[in-house]
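lol forgot to send this yesterday, sorry. struct tokens for the thing we talked abt
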């Protein structure tokens, strides 16, 4: 006996350390003797080698008891339970763990100090599963969702409280969280079947299926034996009662068919959904971020739940009654008041008038006057049609839209990586939609919608390839048919009337993506469709929004040539006449040469075009975003080379002046004297750049350069290149500046870019 007591003392000590300390016991009421089932024996003192023996009369064979031993904050106390033959069976502990007994008879509970020394006080209580001290009956009305539940109070030190009930085998119960009062209240329970075997635990909110016959018993206990109030709730989900009735509604505003309810923290509310037929429905709840829901059939089996398998529809397998449970989902305990509607996707009641899928139709304006409304827009389609839907709220919100067939089944539930949805057969289809966020929209929220056919589209204006230098004519409608007469690469771009680019995507005749702007390669001739932001289904572009279409072969043609002679820098002057105009120049430099683009230093707007250099195949070589302006551009590829350029966004029209100068090899420019006077340069509107050479033997490793304006107005910049065309130094715009440049051996080239105004500059250089 002593060995067993010492072995159990460690378990008892751990329970003591983890459990809250109960209040000090009163003067000893009972420290041994007969102990009735359900009685709480209070003993104020036990010390050293004392043993308090309690006699327990068990009246039924194979009983299960719940012994609880609560001790104060002194030395550990142990409680050992022995059978009629004196053999140890189990121990009494703080947690009232179940203990299975053998034959009926007299059992003993021996309480002693676990280590045989020290002292403490304790409370002892034992409850029985087969012959409980009392067991309240739960009537059938208790299992209604309208029932407030069964309140109860567990006294300090009580082992458990018993309830009994009967329900049909297979019933599914919703077990609510029983809660618990006070800071330490933690009430839990267990349901036993007719064999007194555990069926389900009552802890957090969950469901329980009565898989074994009853009658059933429920034992509730506070985890640490503290006094606590609780509420037992076990509403029946199968053949549920006490739930307000909801019926499948029409599309559009459900009106009075939408139900309003409030769910409390850690609580649940229910709705009885009476379905007249099998089919697809939706569960529309607002605010859906504050609750989550589950739908059960009449047998209590889950049919669908929020997010499983998909949130937007739920298949009712048959006509009949269903139970919708709505759970509180917030992290705080404020009650949530919500609305719920169950639109019938299998019917077409409430749908709008059928619309076409031509791109030249005006955008639809859809009204939503209820937070739980689902709108329906019918269309007619043929097998193989690829349909895409664009939506956009009129004020800040989000729109959710998807395509279904006449039964309400989603046509394209899986993402394919392509845009739009392919119709499997000829017939009637519907676009279902609703706002996902109400925002500050008032009683009538609206959003716009475009339902369009990507494959073999109709209603799109046609564009052929235009010549370089031509100004495209702006027009409306979101798409363009591009008439490709020969395979190859093309410039494809859309710009608004202010010359801001609008990203576009290009599709083939089947509605499959081919490329995106600004450059496309077509493998075969044919008719292709360019759509403004084609993949962005959260955008609507009205027909009256005008834009220009750039559709040009990647290899320029009809381009005037421009000299690269640095000795006489020849500026090319021109004018941009409108949005989308693309111009070109043929460069005279051979393959392998390095060139830079020169501009008037004060050029702005259209005077600073966006330039791209391509070779004779249309392959990109460099552009003005870096190489042409910040370093130098090596002409790689096959000559001849072309500068293709257009005005930047916000500048559809305006004049420009530019030059392209070769900066590699032996410079043919006039020599910049290495004297105190150096040289002078006169600049003007049509002569804004100049070039000078420094022979290999006329500069040090570190050379000091000075640029000073001696007459006129404006600023200038100066760049220094080595013999390979690498830009080594560049100063920002200035009218008087001295700077040091580290140069490699060999000749160097100095290039001046001045404002396009009359001025005179003095340039000098010397060893650092």
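and heres what i got for the seq, position by position
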């Amino acid at each position: 006996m002593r060995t067993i007591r010492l072995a159990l003392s460690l378990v008892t000590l751990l329970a003591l350390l983890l459990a809250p300390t109960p209040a000090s016991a009163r003067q000893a009421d009972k420290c041994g003797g007969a102990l009735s089932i359900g009685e709480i024996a209070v003993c104020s003192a036990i010390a050293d080698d004392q043993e308090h023996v309690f006699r327990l009369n068990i009246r039924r064979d194979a009983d299960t008891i719940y012994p609880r031993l609560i001790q104060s904050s002194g030395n550990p106390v142990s409680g050992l339970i022995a059978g009629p033959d004196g053999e140890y069976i189990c121990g009494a502990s703080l947690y009232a763990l179940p203990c299975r007994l053998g034959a009926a008879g007299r059992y003993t509970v021996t309480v002693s100090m676990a280590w045989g020394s020290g002292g403490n006080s304790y409370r002892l209580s034992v409850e029985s599963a087969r012959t409980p001290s009392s067991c309240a009956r739960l009537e059938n009305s208790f299992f209604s969702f309208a029932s407030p539940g069964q309140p109860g109070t567990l006294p300090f030190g009580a082992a458990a409280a018993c309830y009994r009930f009967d329900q049909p085998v297979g019933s599914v119960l919703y077990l609510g969280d029983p809660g618990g009062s006070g800071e330490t209240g933690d009430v839990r329970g267990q349901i036993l079947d007719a064999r007194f075997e555990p069926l389900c635990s009552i802890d957090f909110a969950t469901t329980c299926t009565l898989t074994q016959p009853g009658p059933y018993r429920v034992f509730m206990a506070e985890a640490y034996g503290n006094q606590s109030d609780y509420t037992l709730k076990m509403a029946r989900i199968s053949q549920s009662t006490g739930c307000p009735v909801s019926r499948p509604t029409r599309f559009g505003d459900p009106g009075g068919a939408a139900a309003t309810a409030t769910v409390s923290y850690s609580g649940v509310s229910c709705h009885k959904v009476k379905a007249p037929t099998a089919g697809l429905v939706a569960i529309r709840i607002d605010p859906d971020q504050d609750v989550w829901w589950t739908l059960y059939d009449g047998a209590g089996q889950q049919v669908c739940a929020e997010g499983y398998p998909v949130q937007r529809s739920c298949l009712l397998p048959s006509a009949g009654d269903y139970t919708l449970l709505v759970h509180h989902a917030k992290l705080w305990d404020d009650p949530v008041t919500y609305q719920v509607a169950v639109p019938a996707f299998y019917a077409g009641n409430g749908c709008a008038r059928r619309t076409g899928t031509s791109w030249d139709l005006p955008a639809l304006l859809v009204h939503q006057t209820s937070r739980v409304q689902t709108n329906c827009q019918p269309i007619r389609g043929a097998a193989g049609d690829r349909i895409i839907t664009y939506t956009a709220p009129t004020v800040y919100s989000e729109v959710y839209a998807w395509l279904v067939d006449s039964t309400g089944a989603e046509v394209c539930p899986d993402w394919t990586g392509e845009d739009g949805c392919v119709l499997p057969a000829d017939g009637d289809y519907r676009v279902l939609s609703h706002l996902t966020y109400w925002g500050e929209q008032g009683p009538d929220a609206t959003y716009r919608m475009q339902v369009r056919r990507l494959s073999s589209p109709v209603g799109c204006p046609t564009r052929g390839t235009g010549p370089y230098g031509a100004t495209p004519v702006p027009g409306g409608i979101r798409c363009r048919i591009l008439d490709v007469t020969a395979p190859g690469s093309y410039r494809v771009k859309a710009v608004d009337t202010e010359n801001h680019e609008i990203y576009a995507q290009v599709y083939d005749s089947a509605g499959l993506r081919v490329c995106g702007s600004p450059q496309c390669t077509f493998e075969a001739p044919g008719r292709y469709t360019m759509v403004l932001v084609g993949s962005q289904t959260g955008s609507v572009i009205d027909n009256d929004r005008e834009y220009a279409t750039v559709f040009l072969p990647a290899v320029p043609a009809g381009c005037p040539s421009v000299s690269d002679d640095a000795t006489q820098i020849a500026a090319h002057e021109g004018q941009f006449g409108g949005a989308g105009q693309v111009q070109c120049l043929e460069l005279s430099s051979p393959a392998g040469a390095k060139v830079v683009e020169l501009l008037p230093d004060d050029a702005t707007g259209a005077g600073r075009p966006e330039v791209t250099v391509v070779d004779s195949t249309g392959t990109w070589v460099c552009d003005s975003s870096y190489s042409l302006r910040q370093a130098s551009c090596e002409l790689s590829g096959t000559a001849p080379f072309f500068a293709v350029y257009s005005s930047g966004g916000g500048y559809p029209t305006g004049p420009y002046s530019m030059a392209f100068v070769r900066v590699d090899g032996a410079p043919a420019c006039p020599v910049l004297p290495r004297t105190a006077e150096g040289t002078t340069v006169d600049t003007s509107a049509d002569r804004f750049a100049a070039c000078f050479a420094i022979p290999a033997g006329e500069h040090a490793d570190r050379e000091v350069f000075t640029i000073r304006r001696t007459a006129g107005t404006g600023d200038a910049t100066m760049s220094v290149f080595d013999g390979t065309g690498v830009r080594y130094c560049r100063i920002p715009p200035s009218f008087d500046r001295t700077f040091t440049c580290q140069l490699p051996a060999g000749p160097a080239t100095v290039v001046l870019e001045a404002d396009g105004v009359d001025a005179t500059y003095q340039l000098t250089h010397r060893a650092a």
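The CA atoms of residues 26 and 357 lie 85 Å apart. anyway ping me if u want another try
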